[in-house]
């Protein structure tokens, strides 16, 4: 859910900022200022979510006991019958990626 929110706010803020620049080009400076403040606020939300997901990933990599919620959207896609390693035969000598030893 956090990744989806990050991409949504990035998408939204890019359109808000482009609208602000459009208003500057037409000479409507009051509306351009409002759009720039709105775009800055959405970009601030984007930055907060980015820091949050960074902290979550760092905590997971350092094997910390804290488990922060990020949301699960896996129920929106169908489940695959096997793991990717099983699909490509990796680790069994049946193709796929092999490690050089």
TrEMBL record:
Record key words, sorted: Membrane, Transmembrane, Transmembrane helix
GO MF: acetate transmembrane transporter activity
Top-level taxon of origin: Eukaryota
Database matches in InterPro entries: AceTr
GO cellular component, one term: plasma membrane
Ranges annotated as spanning the membrane: 42-60
Descriptive protein name: Uncharacterized protein
Taxon lineage: Eukaryota, Fungi, Dikarya, Ascomycota, Pezizomycotina
